[in-house]
Amino acid sequence: MTAPVVDVHDVRVWYAGPNGPVQAVDGVTFALRPGEVLGLVGESGCGKSTLGRGLMGLVPRGAAIDGDVEFDGRHLLGLSKKEREKIRGPGMALIFQEPMTRLDPLMKISDHFTEVLHVHEPKLSKSEMRDRALDALRSLGIPPTRYDNYPHEFSGGMRQRIMIALALALRPKFIIADEPTTALDVLVEAQILNILADIRQTYAPAILLITHNLGIVAEACDRVAVMYAGRIVEQGPVRDVFAKPRHPYTQALLRSTISLKTQELNSIAGAPPDLVRPPTGCRFHPRCAHAMQVCVDKLPPLIVEGVQQAECWLLASGLSEAQRRPLQREEVSVADEA
Ligand SMILES: Nc1ncnc2c1ncn2[C@@H]1O[C@H](COP(=O)(O)OP(=O)(O)OP(=O)(O)O)[C@@H](O)[C@H]1O
Ligand code: SF4
Ligand SMILES: [Mg+2]
Question: pTM of this prediction?
Answer without folding.
Answer: 0.90
